[in-house]
Amino acid sequence: MTRILSAFVAITLLGTATPALATITFTMGDQGSGQGQEVLLNDSNTQGLTVLGHTNQSLDGITFTSSQIIGDAPNGQSLIAAFDAIGGDQTTLNNLTFFATDPTLGFSRVEFDLTNTANLGDAIVVTLSGIDQLGNLFTQNFTTHLNGQDDPVGTNWLIATASDGETIQSISFNTPDGTGFSDFRQLRLDFANGVPEPATWGLMLLGFGIIGSQIRRNRSRRGAIALA
Protein backbone atom coordinates (compact mmCIF):
# COMPACT_ATOMS: atom_id res chain seq x y z
CA MET A 1 0.00 0.00 0.00
CA THR A 2 2.92 2.35 0.76
CA ARG A 3 4.27 1.88 -2.76
CA ILE A 4 0.82 2.60 -4.21
CA LEU A 5 0.49 5.84 -2.25
CA SER A 6 4.02 6.86 -3.23
CA ALA A 7 3.27 6.28 -6.90
CA PHE A 8 0.05 8.28 -6.63
CA VAL A 9 1.79 11.21 -4.95
CA ALA A 10 4.59 11.21 -7.52
CA ILE A 11 2.21 11.21 -10.46
CA THR A 12 0.04 13.89 -8.86
CA LEU A 13 3.07 16.15 -8.42
CA LEU A 14 4.06 15.61 -12.03
CA GLY A 15 0.55 16.36 -13.19
CA THR A 16 0.40 19.64 -11.30
CA ALA A 17 3.89 20.85 -12.20
CA THR A 18 4.10 24.01 -14.28
CA PRO A 19 5.06 23.30 -17.91
CA ALA A 20 8.44 24.62 -19.02
CA LEU A 21 6.88 27.03 -21.51
CA ALA A 22 4.28 28.44 -19.12
CA THR A 23 4.40 32.21 -19.00
CA ILE A 24 2.55 35.47 -18.50
CA THR A 25 2.75 37.59 -21.65
CA PHE A 26 2.21 41.36 -21.70
CA THR A 27 1.16 43.31 -24.77
CA MET A 28 0.18 46.91 -25.44
CA GLY A 29 -2.09 48.15 -28.20
CA ASP A 30 -5.73 48.68 -29.01
CA GLN A 31 -8.61 47.28 -26.98
CA GLY A 32 -8.84 43.57 -27.69
CA SER A 33 -11.72 41.28 -28.53
CA GLY A 34 -13.16 38.73 -26.13
CA GLN A 35 -12.65 41.14 -23.29
CA GLY A 36 -14.11 39.05 -20.47
CA GLN A 37 -16.03 40.31 -17.46
CA GLU A 38 -16.18 43.99 -16.58
CA VAL A 39 -15.07 44.98 -13.10
CA LEU A 40 -17.17 47.53 -11.21
CA LEU A 41 -16.32 49.35 -8.00
CA ASN A 42 -18.46 48.62 -4.95
CA ASP A 43 -18.66 52.13 -3.52
CA SER A 44 -17.76 55.22 -5.55
CA ASN A 45 -17.47 57.32 -2.37
CA THR A 46 -14.76 55.19 -0.73
CA GLN A 47 -11.18 56.44 -0.75
CA GLY A 48 -8.14 54.86 0.87
CA LEU A 49 -5.17 52.62 0.18
CA THR A 50 -7.55 49.75 -0.70
CA VAL A 51 -10.64 49.80 -2.92
CA LEU A 52 -12.98 46.85 -3.54
CA GLY A 53 -14.81 45.92 -6.72
CA HIS A 54 -16.63 42.97 -8.28
CA THR A 55 -17.15 41.37 -11.68
CA ASN A 56 -20.41 42.17 -13.43
CA GLN A 57 -21.32 38.54 -14.21
CA SER A 58 -19.96 36.13 -11.59
CA LEU A 59 -19.89 38.87 -8.89
CA ASP A 60 -16.46 37.74 -7.72
CA GLY A 61 -14.60 40.28 -5.62
CA ILE A 62 -11.57 42.18 -6.91
CA THR A 63 -9.22 44.03 -4.54
CA PHE A 64 -7.21 47.10 -5.61
CA THR A 65 -4.31 48.38 -3.50
CA SER A 66 -1.84 51.25 -3.85
CA SER A 67 0.65 53.24 -1.80
CA GLN A 68 -1.42 56.28 -2.81
CA ILE A 69 -4.93 57.28 -1.76
CA ILE A 70 -7.19 55.83 -4.44
CA GLY A 71 -10.89 55.89 -5.21
CA ASP A 72 -13.46 56.17 -7.97
CA ALA A 73 -13.24 59.41 -9.93
CA PRO A 74 -16.66 61.08 -10.23
CA ASN A 75 -16.85 60.85 -14.02
CA GLY A 76 -16.28 57.14 -14.62
CA GLN A 77 -17.63 53.72 -13.76
CA SER A 78 -14.84 51.35 -12.70
CA LEU A 79 -12.40 54.21 -12.98
CA ILE A 80 -9.71 54.47 -10.28
CA ALA A 81 -7.87 57.71 -9.66
CA ALA A 82 -5.37 58.94 -7.07
CA PHE A 83 -5.89 61.84 -4.65
CA ASP A 84 -3.52 63.98 -2.61
CA ALA A 85 -5.65 63.40 0.51
CA ILE A 86 -8.97 61.82 1.50
CA GLY A 87 -11.53 63.98 -0.27
CA GLY A 88 -8.71 66.05 -1.75
CA ASP A 89 -7.66 66.98 -5.26
CA GLN A 90 -6.99 64.38 -7.91
CA THR A 91 -3.32 63.72 -8.66
CA THR A 92 -1.41 61.40 -10.97
CA LEU A 93 -1.73 57.67 -10.30
CA ASN A 94 1.71 56.02 -10.32
CA ASN A 95 1.11 52.54 -8.88
CA LEU A 96 -1.70 50.02 -8.47
CA THR A 97 -2.07 46.30 -7.78
CA PHE A 98 -5.19 44.19 -8.22
CA PHE A 99 -6.09 40.56 -7.54
CA ALA A 100 -9.09 38.32 -6.88
CA THR A 101 -10.33 38.78 -3.32
CA ASP A 102 -10.79 35.00 -3.13
CA PRO A 103 -7.19 33.67 -3.04
CA THR A 104 -8.25 30.43 -4.76
CA LEU A 105 -9.14 32.35 -7.94
CA GLY A 106 -6.76 33.47 -10.66
CA PHE A 107 -6.98 35.07 -14.08
CA SER A 108 -6.22 33.75 -17.55
CA ARG A 109 -6.41 37.20 -19.16
CA VAL A 110 -6.73 40.81 -18.03
CA GLU A 111 -7.15 44.02 -20.00
CA PHE A 112 -7.23 47.63 -18.84
CA ASP A 113 -6.53 51.20 -19.90
CA LEU A 114 -4.09 53.67 -18.32
CA THR A 115 -5.09 57.12 -19.51
CA ASN A 116 -3.14 60.36 -19.88
CA THR A 117 -5.44 63.36 -20.31
CA ALA A 118 -4.52 66.82 -21.50
CA ASN A 119 -4.17 68.33 -18.01
CA LEU A 120 -3.19 65.31 -15.89
CA GLY A 121 -0.92 62.34 -16.52
CA ASP A 122 2.68 62.56 -17.66
CA ALA A 123 3.98 58.98 -17.51
CA ILE A 124 6.32 58.10 -20.37
CA VAL A 125 7.37 54.65 -19.14
CA VAL A 126 5.32 52.08 -17.22
CA THR A 127 6.42 48.76 -15.73
CA LEU A 128 3.82 46.02 -15.77
CA SER A 129 4.26 43.05 -13.41
CA GLY A 130 2.40 39.79 -12.90
CA ILE A 131 2.71 37.01 -10.33
CA ASP A 132 1.65 33.46 -11.17
CA GLN A 133 0.24 30.69 -8.94
CA LEU A 134 3.76 29.57 -7.98
CA GLY A 135 4.94 33.04 -6.99
CA ASN A 136 7.00 33.61 -10.16
CA LEU A 137 7.32 37.26 -11.19
CA PHE A 138 6.99 38.43 -14.80
CA THR A 139 7.74 42.06 -15.74
CA GLN A 140 7.92 44.19 -18.86
CA ASN A 141 8.40 47.90 -19.59
CA PHE A 142 6.31 49.87 -22.08
CA THR A 143 6.55 53.35 -23.59
CA THR A 144 3.21 55.08 -23.10
CA HIS A 145 1.01 57.19 -25.36
CA LEU A 146 1.07 60.79 -24.16
CA ASN A 147 -1.89 63.05 -24.81
CA GLY A 148 -1.53 64.83 -28.14
CA GLN A 149 1.51 62.88 -29.31
CA ASP A 150 0.29 59.46 -30.40
CA ASP A 151 -2.72 57.64 -31.78
CA PRO A 152 -4.70 56.50 -29.83
CA VAL A 153 -4.23 59.77 -27.95
CA GLY A 154 -3.45 59.19 -24.29
CA THR A 155 -4.86 55.66 -24.34
CA ASN A 156 -2.67 52.80 -23.12
CA TRP A 157 -4.39 49.44 -23.48
CA LEU A 158 -2.38 46.86 -21.58
CA ILE A 159 -3.12 43.14 -21.75
CA ALA A 160 -1.73 40.25 -19.70
CA THR A 161 -2.32 36.68 -20.90
CA ALA A 162 -1.47 33.43 -19.15
CA SER A 163 -0.53 30.39 -21.24
CA ASP A 164 0.31 26.70 -20.87
CA GLY A 165 -1.19 26.21 -17.43
CA GLU A 166 -0.11 29.53 -15.95
CA THR A 167 -2.55 31.43 -13.73
CA ILE A 168 -2.30 35.14 -13.04
CA GLN A 169 -2.67 35.77 -9.31
CA SER A 170 -2.03 39.52 -9.35
CA ILE A 171 -1.18 42.35 -11.73
CA SER A 172 0.66 45.57 -10.83
CA PHE A 173 1.90 48.66 -12.59
CA ASN A 174 4.22 51.41 -11.49
CA THR A 175 5.91 54.44 -13.03
CA PRO A 176 9.15 56.27 -12.17
CA ASP A 177 9.03 58.82 -9.36
CA GLY A 178 7.29 62.03 -10.30
CA THR A 179 5.24 60.58 -13.16
CA GLY A 180 1.88 58.89 -13.38
CA PHE A 181 -1.43 58.50 -15.22
CA SER A 182 -4.67 60.41 -14.94
CA ASP A 183 -6.49 57.20 -14.06
CA PHE A 184 -6.88 53.41 -14.41
CA ARG A 185 -10.08 52.34 -16.17
CA GLN A 186 -12.12 49.67 -17.97
CA LEU A 187 -10.66 46.57 -16.31
CA ARG A 188 -11.91 43.38 -17.95
CA LEU A 189 -10.78 39.90 -17.02
CA ASP A 190 -11.27 36.18 -17.53
CA PHE A 191 -10.87 33.74 -14.67
CA ALA A 192 -8.70 30.67 -15.12
CA ASN A 193 -11.00 27.67 -15.51
CA GLY A 194 -8.78 25.20 -13.66
CA VAL A 195 -9.32 22.43 -16.23
CA PRO A 196 -6.20 20.21 -16.53
CA GLU A 197 -4.25 20.47 -19.75
CA PRO A 198 -4.02 17.45 -22.11
CA ALA A 199 -0.48 16.72 -20.86
CA THR A 200 -1.73 16.77 -17.29
CA TRP A 201 -4.58 14.39 -18.15
CA GLY A 202 -2.05 12.06 -19.79
CA LEU A 203 0.12 12.00 -16.67
CA MET A 204 -2.92 11.37 -14.48
CA LEU A 205 -4.08 8.47 -16.67
CA LEU A 206 -0.56 7.05 -16.65
CA GLY A 207 -0.53 7.28 -12.87
CA PHE A 208 -3.86 5.53 -12.55
CA GLY A 209 -2.59 2.78 -14.84
CA ILE A 210 0.52 2.30 -12.71
CA ILE A 211 -1.55 2.21 -9.53
CA GLY A 212 -3.97 -0.32 -11.05
CA SER A 213 -1.09 -2.50 -12.18
CA GLN A 214 0.43 -2.39 -8.67
CA ILE A 215 -2.89 -3.37 -7.10
CA ARG A 216 -3.29 -6.33 -9.47
CA ARG A 217 0.30 -7.43 -8.75
CA ASN A 218 -0.28 -7.31 -5.00
CA ARG A 219 -3.49 -9.33 -5.34
CA SER A 220 -1.67 -11.96 -7.39
CA ARG A 221 1.02 -12.23 -4.75
CA ARG A 222 -1.51 -12.61 -1.94
CA GLY A 223 -3.32 -15.29 -3.94
CA ALA A 224 -0.09 -17.21 -4.54
CA ILE A 225 0.76 -17.05 -0.83
CA ALA A 226 -2.71 -18.30 0.15
CA LEU A 227 -2.46 -21.26 -2.23
CA ALA A 228 0.94 -22.16 -0.86
Q: List low-confidence stretches.
A: 7-11, 195-201
Which percent range fits the helix content? 10-25%
* Global structural class: alpha+beta
Termini, distance in Å?
A: 22 Å
Give me the strand/helix succession.
HEEEEEEEEEEEEEH
CATH class: Mainly Beta
DSSP helical segment count: 2
Using DSSP, what is the number of strands? 13
Number of structurally distinct domains: 1
What topology, given as strand order, has the largest sheet?
Answer: 2-3-4-5-13
Could you outline the blueprint of secondary structure elements for this entry?
Layout: H1 2-16, E1 23-29, E2 37-41, E3 47-55, E4 61-72, E5 79-83, E6 90-91, E7 95-100, E8 107-115, E9 125-132, E10 137-143, E11 155-163, E12 168-174, E13 183-191, H2 198-227
Antiparallel strand pairs: 1-11, 2-3, 2-13, 3-4, 4-5, 4-7, 5-6, 5-13, 7-12, 8-11, 8-13, 9-10, 9-12
Helix pairs in contact: 1-2
What does this structure look like?
Helix 1 runs antiparallel to helix 2. The chain has one domain: Jelly Rolls, CATH 2.60.120. The protein is of the alpha+beta class and 228 residues long. Helices cover 20% and strands 42% of the residues.
Which key features would you list for this structure?
228 residues; alpha+beta; Jelly Rolls; five-stranded antiparallel barrel; 20% helix; 42% strand
